[in-house]
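Look over this one:
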Amino acid sequence: MSATTTRLLSSTLLFALAATLCGAPRAAAEINACDRVASHPSDPDKVLPGFSRKQIDLPKAEAICRAELAREPLSARTTFHLGRMLYYQGKGKDAWPYLEKSAAMGYRQGMFVAGFVLYDGGLLPHDDCRTLELWRQSLALEHPWTGAYLVDAYLDGRFDRCGLKLTDEQMQRYVVLSTSHVPYGESEGRMEKVVQRLAARAKASAAPAAPAAAAVANAPEVVKPFDPSKYSQSVTECDRLASHPEDPNRVAPGRERPEIDLPKAIEVCRAAVQADPKNPRLNYLYGRVLGYSGRGAEGLANRRAAVDADYPQALFVIGYITVFGMNQQPKDVCQGAEWIRRSAYQGRVAGQLGFPRYVLAGMFDGCPVRKDTQEMLGFVAAARQQFKGDYYQGLLADMLDEDLGKRP
């Protein structure tokens, strides 16, 4: 371990220990005038919902925060707010002392933002190693955004000269800190990007050292996301009558099975497939209503057409009924396992949570499907971004993370 890494780890551990024993010197929870005009929406220690940059009257907020800081000079939160207001006005050199001071006072958002300012280098010179030092401190205090940013920068090589070496397990843990606390959609794609990068890294490291021709067929180098734009997105009568409520690529409101007029849906979906035979969405819907009517065997070719096109909903549903031999689908546990795994790569939450669950239950023990722990942890982390705080899905994700962590 390099001297730089040792110093960083030591300072981080000491900081975390001090915060644990004494409590980080956070600002009091009392709301002041500065909070009312300058709170950051992503600050985990904010006392108000927060305001985006464009919502703030910056000169007015600066004046208010200066007055509050003069009244209460030891407020780490207000110190951070003032630094933020100055930075937004392009006053990087003026902002830095306040951001740095709020970080030194133990304010988590101050540590993260001060590190980001040096990482970004827009108003102040780049200093990646100082960024790392600050982010290691905010990470030690479980600042939710830090994990994803630190891992993303690490994978970009930004910390190479700082002597930092992270294991895949550490990176996965840091990213889970972010994905388990930051609501889906708020990261503008950053969480998704890091999760995908870790999953790709895990796949690459687990790939056998053999020529491409001998590579395992069910672990492709690149998994291309399903592109619905390749097919007509026009709403058909089949879509109106038969869309599944949980299909992420539906083009009409979904209907549960009891709500569907099955004879009529079969008629209109057959016509829709005849008019657009390569559309996987319509093939899936036709197979769905045939299956619900006890005529699943008639829709086997349609189910397969949807699966072969990597239609996410079909991959999971057809994979599931293939594992269990339901709805007149021939039972093939291993083929179903591969389709469920592919649905996880296509972003289907049911696959992202279902595949690890079935693997842990031993259902796929006799199958050649890839059962890599890091890959499955990536699936669970990606699922967390989509279910928006649902308690039961979160509980399942927690259990999966715990059980996957015990795998040899």
